[in-house]
Amino acid sequence: MLVYILFIIGFVFLIKGADLLIHGSSVIAKRLNVSELVIGLTVVAFGTSAPEFFINVIAAWNQQADIALGNVIGSNIANILLVLGVAALIFPLAVQKGVVWREIPFNLVAALLIVFMMNDIFLGLGINNVITRSEGLVLVGLFGLFLYHIFSVKRAKEVKPDTKINMSWLRSVLYILVGLMGLAVGGDWIVKGAITLAQAFGLSETFVAVTVIALGTSLPELATSVVAAYRRSVDIAVGNIVGSSIFNICLVLGVTAVISPLSVSDGLNLDAGVLVLASLILFIFMFIGRKHVLDRKSGAVFILLYVVYIWMVVVRG
Asked: How far apart are CA 286 and CA 294, in angstroms?
């Protein structure tokens, strides 16, 4: 019973930790005169991806490959279909042309790369389906290229310093440190609770990872993008999801594989295929209806697709 209680409290720590991390990081970013889109693609995306990062590091340390892989894949599916869908229902999301032609395709390529890395046997590249340390380093390197791209291409779109900032540098750093502590503790409790939950109810770790954990770690993205859409901060809403998805695959999964090579369960190929499909659909929908706009009808379609995916996972067990 204590494990289940800590499992629930872990999500509270996780979400609050992410909130403090985002708040502190955003203030520092504004002080450094960075545009909203860059903040969304980097600072906010990192903050909302921090739960996945800490859960994956702990899962890798405990040799729980299914939880690590399922968490990233399931969370990215939730980010694209559920979170963007809900945000688009609240307010149509007009996506900048650069994001349509650069960051969204980058996310699709990253998703395809994961499928490639997960299928060594079928591609004749090994005797086991494993995401190796060297492949993890490739993902981390790709993440470095992403950051270089962001801060070189977007630099021309800087904004004027925010004169309304009333948080000191010290307090901002304190928020970041406390947020990281909350993420570490919450992540540890969630992983332990998920393992116990799977064992108690005869569920696979993959099922728990792509549903319960993935939805839980996507709550910061959901909260951030919904609030951003409500406040008409479209660049934050879209940048958060696209950036977070790239962070999850390249940084989170890359670091996880470097810590401990990830053995791939056969069932995860379906989820990885759905992730690629969701990433492709996001790109295609940029040209359906109003160009480069994810409207309310598109948002409803995205949510419906996510419900269908969850139904498939439940049926699969």
From this structure: 7
Angle of helix 65-77 relative to helix 104-118, nearest 10 degrees?
Answer: 150
**Whole-angstrom distance, CA of residue 50 vs CA of residue 141:** 19
pLDDT tens readout for residues 225-258: 887 788 777 887 888 899 999 999 999 999 999 9
φ, ψ of residue 122 to 5 degrees: the values are -65, -25
3-state secondary structure labels for all residues of the chain: CHHHHHHHHHHHHHHHHHHHHHHHHHHHHHHCCCCHHHHHHHHHHHHHHHHHHHHHHHHHHCCCHHHHHHHHHHHHHHHHHHHHHHHHHHCCEECCHHHHHHHHHHHHHHHHHHHHHHCCCCCCCCCCCEECHHHHHHHHHHHHHHHHHHHHHHHHHCCCCCCCCCCCHHHHHHHHHHHHHHHHHHHHHHHHHHHHHHHHCCCCHHHHHHHHHHHHHCHHHHHHHHHHHHCCCHHHHHHHHHHHHHHHHHHHHHHHHHHCCEECCCCHHHHHHHHHHHHHHHHHHCCCCCCCEECHHHHHHHHHHHHHHHHHHHHHC
Full-model pTM: 0.83
Tokens of 129: 């389906």
CB of 43 within 8 A of CB of 25?
Answer: yes
For residue 122, the model assigns a pLDDT of 67
pLDDT classification of 159: cutoffs 50, 70, 90:
very low
Q: Considering only CA atoms, which of 252, 204, 200, 262 is closest in space to residue 63?
A: 262
